[in-house]
Amino acid sequence: MTGRSQRILADAEDVDAIIISNSREPFLDPNFWYVTGAMGGLFESSLVVLKEDRVDAIVSEMEAGSARDGGASVHVYKTAQERDELTIRCLGDSERIGLNYDSITLHSAEKLRQLLKDVEFKDVAESIKRCRSIKDRGEIDNIRRAAAIASKVAEELPAIICRGMTEQQVAARIDSLLRERGSEGEPFATIVAFGDNAAHPHHRPGHRVLGDGMTVLCDFGAIYGRYCSDLTRTMFCGNPDDDFVKAYDAVVEAQDAGVRAMVAEAKACEPDRAAREIIDAAGHKGRFIHSFGHEIGLSVHEGGVMSQRAHHVLLEGMVMSAEPGIYVPGRFGIRVEDTVHIKADGAERLTGFDRALTVI
C-alpha cells in the first residue's frame, strides 16, 4: 500500500514521516487499514509509520498474523518498551512527523511527544482526508459489493415488514438479512422509524408497533472488504394521504436533481442547492434539515459533505450518499438515499431499489 502512503506524504508536504496510531477500541483509526491493506485484526495499541518508500506496521504478537495479510512490513512487539524501540527505529532520522489529529487520542499523542522529544509534529488530517476521498478501483469494487448487498436487503423489506411488528423487530431482521446476504457487519446502527418517529432523522428503533397510517423509514448499510454502503427507503403502511404522496414525490425529484448535479469539478454545495430548491418549491421550506450527502468509504461518514455551506470541489472517484428528506414533526418523515459514485461522465448510483412509493 505504498502508493496510498506516497500520496498522503506528497499532499502533506514538509513531513519526513507520518504516524497512524491506534489506542483502545473504540479509538481506532480506519487509516490503519487504509495504508496497510489489512482486512482483519483490531490492532489496539499498534501504529503504522509511513515513509516515502515503505509502510511499517508495529503490532502486538496477537495481531501479527492479521497484519501480514496486508502490504506493510510487519514488526512485532511483546512489551511497550519494544514498541517504542521499534517506533524510533522505523522513523530513523525523521525530524518532522505528521499525526492524524482527527483520530489520535490525547493520551497517545502525549506518549509520542514524550518518546520523540526532538521532533516537530504536524497535523496531517486534511491531507489524509483528501487522499481517502478519491477511491481507487479496489475500493470502488468493495463499495459496489456492499451496495449490492444493501440493495438486495431493501428489495426484501416489503415482504418481511407487516402490521404488528415493532421498530426493533424490523431493525433486527434487517441486520440479520445483511449478514445472510454477505455483509461483514453494520456500518452504523440500523434506523427503523414508524409514524412521526420518522421525523427524527437519527431515530433509535424502539417498541412502537406498526399499524395503518404509519410511515415506515428504514436506513441501513452493508460492509464488504471493510468498505461501507448507505441506503434509505421510506414506505407507508395502509393508504397514504395526498400530502404524504406529494411530499414523497418531491423527495424523489429532489434526489434526482441532486444526483444530476453530482459531477466532477462541481462545487459541493450545488447538489444540495438543486435538491433544496425542489423541496422548497413543494411547500416544505425549512423541512430538509440536514445536508444532501456525505462521503462514504471505510467509514460510513468520512471526509466532506454536500451542504449549503460546502465550497470544496467534487472530484472523480468520490463516493457519496444522496439523501434529501422532508421532516414534518408530529406527522411523518421521508428520506430516500442511495450510495453514488462520481465518475468522469456523471454520477452512478451503486445502490438500487425501486424508488416508487411502496405501500405495505
What's the short version?
The protein has helices at 2-12, 31-36, 64-68, 80-91, 106-115, 125-133, 137-160, 167-180, 242-260, 269-284; strands at 17-21, 47-51, 54-60, 73-77, 96-99, 120-123, 191-194, 214-220, 223-224, 227-228, 231-237, 293-295, 302-306, 319-322, 325-328, 332-335, 338-343, 346-349, 358-359. The protein is an alpha+beta fold.
Write the layout of secondary structure elements.
Elements: H1 2-12, E1 17-21, H2 31-36, E2 47-51, E3 54-60, H3 64-68, E4 73-77, H4 80-91, E5 96-99, H5 106-115, E6 120-123, H6 125-133, H7 137-160, H8 167-180, E7 191-194, E8 214-220, E9 223-224, E10 227-228, E11 231-237, H9 242-260, H10 269-284, E12 293-295, E13 302-306, E14 319-322, E15 325-328, E16 332-335, E17 338-343, E18 346-349, E19 358-359
Parallel strand pairs: 1-5, 3-4, 5-6, 11-19
Antiparallel strand pairs: 1-2, 2-3, 7-8, 8-11, 9-10, 12-13, 14-17, 15-16, 17-18
How does this structure look, described?
The chain has helices spanning 2-12, 31-36, 64-68, 80-91, 106-115, 125-133, 137-160, 167-180, 242-260, 269-284, and strands at 17-21, 47-51, 54-60, 73-77, 96-99, 120-123, 191-194, 214-220, 223-224, 227-228, 231-237, 293-295, 302-306, 319-322, 325-328, 332-335, 338-343, 346-349, 358-359. With 360 residues, it is an alpha+beta fold. It folds into 2 domains: 2-132, 3-Layer(aba) Sandwich (Creatine Amidinohydrolase, Chain A, domain 1); 137-359, Creatine Amidinohydrolase (Alpha-Beta Complex). The strands form 6 sheets. A 6-stranded mixed sheet has the order 4-3-2-1-5-6. It has a 4-stranded mixed sheet with strand order 7-8-11-19, covered by helices on one side. A 3-stranded antiparallel sheet has the order 14-17-18. Helix 5 links the parallel strand 5 (96-99) and strand 6.
